[in-house]
Structures are given as structure tokens and as C-alpha cells.
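Deliverable D2.4 — example input (C-alpha cells):
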């Protein structure tokens, strides 16, 4: 994988190439005029150290260095690296109801779309926590395993619909069982574990007391947001492209109402809280404040950073080409040239050394930032800058 981070500077590369070609052409024209007057042997005796071929070498090395520098300025990047990152946080599994009743519009633009929007905002405000996503209707399915890759979780949520699961209905038990299994399959962090359910509370299965007790004894808290209103709305249905409302066996339109009973029972039994969503606010700020009070553990994750900077390789090459071109200047004695070259190399390497080793203040500042300690992080960044 390769790219340029600043391709807008391509013009510098073009100018450098054109300039070198022009100078080479001018050199040969100049050399031809000189050789029309003097032979090479006579010319060498007259000029001694001012060898015309040395001038050509200086021109080539300097021009090549200029071209390489112009490429470096475009910011060549390639490859990737994986970094082990340790953060403080909790584990959160989002269980989103995608049964057909979630399409109702008593919470605009619909229960589902509003939940997706606000969940995206909630995930964007997390710092160091792991988040996973479960979709459930008649059966629960893990969609995003517990991860600190918030962008991936938000991207997935944007594309969720009722067709994301193959079985319709509402089965809270399967969502809770799957949540417990996901927590069991991860390395213990020492932090709290939370299941956040977003649903209208309709349950077609029942018999979930045993799994609630399992969650409680495992220290897993369940938080819930009720989607919908107590008055409810007809359940929309699309049959062969004809939009209408779902009807029961007697031909009556099915109305989906918010059933708070099951949601309140689950949250109360596990030490969580229940929030009734409304058209104005689903209650995400309340949930976020509650999450901030929970015990955080040390979470280790692997983060992949793609496109590593390679400009420094080209910069090194260009620098040594320029130093070599400087050493063969006709008027420079060999001894003086060596001393100057050593001084240039020393200054170059000492100037780059801060970038070739890890800055402890910057590392500490990054750790503080990831923990949400922004004021302390700023102080460490100031120290790193001064250093």
C-alpha cells in the first residue's frame, strides 16, 4: 500500500526535473564552446583542480538531491504498523431491537433511525471503553465484537435495518444470553460490564428470569432505553411493494406500544437504570453520565496505523548526495572538505535525533488524554514541546 499524503506538491517535482534537464543541456552547450577553443589536456592544465567533469558531477548530484527532496515533500507513505494500546475503560454491549415494530414513527424519524443516530453520538463520546453490537428480533446475532474501533461500530450501525436479522419477533432472552457469552469470551479487564438495550419492550418469548439472575451474579449491569410511546402506533408492513399496516388473525391493525415492564424488571434486577425515550430526547446523556461513574479496568487493544511516513528515507539520501557534491567542489581542499563533511553529518544527525527516539513526555500525555485527563495531558504536551 503506497500513497502521497501531499500530492499537491507534485509541481515541485516537475519543476525540479525540468530544471535539471535545462542545466544539463546548458552545461553541454558550455562544454562544447570551451572544447572548441581548448583540447581537454590543455584545459586540464590550465584549470588544474577546476575539472569540468567535476562541475558536471556536482550538477548531477545536486539536481538529483533536489528531485528527491521534492518527492519527500509530497509525503510518501507505505505499509502499516500495529501498536498495543492500554486504556482505562469499561465493556459495553449495545443490544438493538430490530423487530418490525421498531419502524414506527412515534419517535421521529422512526424508532430505529433515531436509535441509530443517538447511538452513533454516544459511541463518539466514549474514551477507552470497549463496545460491541448485538442485533436481536426473533433471535440475537453478534454484529460487532467488543472493540475500541469506534469508527467501525458507527459505520456498522448506520447500515442497520430490520432485514439485518433473518428471524422476526422479539426475544430478549437470546440477546441477554449472547451478551453473557460475549463477556465470557474476552480477557477480564477488571472494569464494569454493561449491556445497553434499546427496544420497545415487546417480548414474545418470556421465561428470562434465569438469565437475568446469571447476569446479576456475574456483575453485568443492564441499562435500557424504551423506544416508543405508551399510546403506540400501527406496525408498518411492506408486502410485495405495497405499504400498509400489519394485521392480526382477526383482521385488526396491530398497534405496538412501549412495554416498560420487562425493561424495568431487567434493569432493576441487575443494578442498571431504565430511561423512557421521547421524541425530544432518548436519554443518552443520562446513560453517558451513569457510565462515567462505573469502575474502569485496564483494556489492551491492538490498533493498526496505516501509511507510515517514508519521507525521512528520501531526506537522508538527498542530504548525503548534497554533502558528497559539496566535498568535490573544485576550490575545497581535501582536508578542509573532510572536516566540513564531518561537521555537517554531526549537525544533521543531532538535529534528527529527537525524532528518532521516543519522547517520554509525549507518551505520558497520550496516556492521560486517552484516560480523559485533558488538563494533565496539556501540561505534559507543554513539557514535551519545551524539551
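Example output (designed residues):
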Amino acid at each position: 500500500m503506497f500513497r502521497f499524503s501531499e500530492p499537491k506538491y507534485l509541481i515541485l517535482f516537475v519543476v525540479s526535473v525540468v530544471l535539471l534537464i535545462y542545466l544539463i543541456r546548458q552545461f553541454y552547450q558550455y562544454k562544447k564552446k570551451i572544447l572548441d577553443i581548448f583540447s581537454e589536456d590543455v584545459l586540464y592544465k590550465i584549470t588544474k583542480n577546476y575539472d569540468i567533469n567535476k562541475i558536471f558531477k556536482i550538477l548531477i548530484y545536486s539536481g538529483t538531491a533536489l528531485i528527491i527532496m521534492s518527492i519527500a515533500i509530497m509525503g510518501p507513505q507505505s505499509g502499516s504498523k500495529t501498536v498495543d494500546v492500554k486504556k482505562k475503560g469499561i465493556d459495553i454491549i449495545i443490544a438493538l431491537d430490530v423487530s418490525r415494530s421498531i419502524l414506527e414513527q412515534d419517535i421521529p424519524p422512526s424508532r430505529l433511525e433515531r436509535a441509530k443516530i443517538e447511538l452513533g453520538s454516544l459511541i463518539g463520546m466514549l474514551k477507552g471503553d470497549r463496545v460491541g453490537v448485538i442485533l436481536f428480533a426473533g433471535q440475537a446475532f453478534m454484529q460487532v465484537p467488543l472493540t475500541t474501533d469506534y469508527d467501525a461500530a458507527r459505520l456498522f450501525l448506520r447500515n442497520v435495518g430490520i432485514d439485518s436479522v433473518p428471524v422476526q419477533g422479539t426475544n430478549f432472552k437470546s440477546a441477554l444470553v449472547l451478551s453473557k457469552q460475549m463477556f465470557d469470551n474476552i480477557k477480564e479487564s477488571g472494569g464494569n460490564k454493561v449491556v445497553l438495550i434499546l427496544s420497545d419492550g415487546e417480548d414474545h418469548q418470556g421465561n428470562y428470569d434465569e438469565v437475568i439472575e446469571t447476569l446479576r451474579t456475574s456483575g453485568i449491569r443492564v441499562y435500557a432505553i424504551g423506544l416508543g410511546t405508551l399510546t403506540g402506533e400501527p406496525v408498518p408492513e411492506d408486502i410485495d411493494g405495497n405499504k400498509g399496516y400489519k394485521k392480526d388473525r382477526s383482521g385488526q391493525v396491530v398497534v405496538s406500544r412501549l412495554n416498560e415492564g420487562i425493561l424495568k424488571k431487567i434493569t432493576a434486577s441487575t443494578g442498571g437504570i431504565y430511561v423512557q425515550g421521547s421524541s425530544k430526547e432518548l436519554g443518552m446523556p443520562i446513560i453517558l453520565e451513569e457510565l462515567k461513574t462505573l469502575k474502569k479496568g485496564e483494556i489492551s487493544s491492538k490498533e493498526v496505523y496505516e501509511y507510515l511516513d517514508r519521507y525521512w528515507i528520501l531526506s537522508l539520501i538527498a542530504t548525503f548526495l548534497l554533502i558528497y557534491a559539496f566535498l568535490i567542489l573544485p576550490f575545497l581542499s581535501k582536508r578542509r572538505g573532510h572536516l566540513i563533511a564531518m561537521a555537517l553529518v554531526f549537525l544533521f544527525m543531532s538535529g534528527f535525533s529527537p525524532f528518532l527516539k521516543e519522547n517520554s513526555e509525549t507518551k505520558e500525555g497520550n496516556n492521560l488524554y486517552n484516560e480523559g485527563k485533558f488538563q494533565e495531558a496539556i501540561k505534559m504536551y507543554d513539557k514535551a514541546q519545551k524539551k
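The two ends are 34 Å apart (CA to CA).
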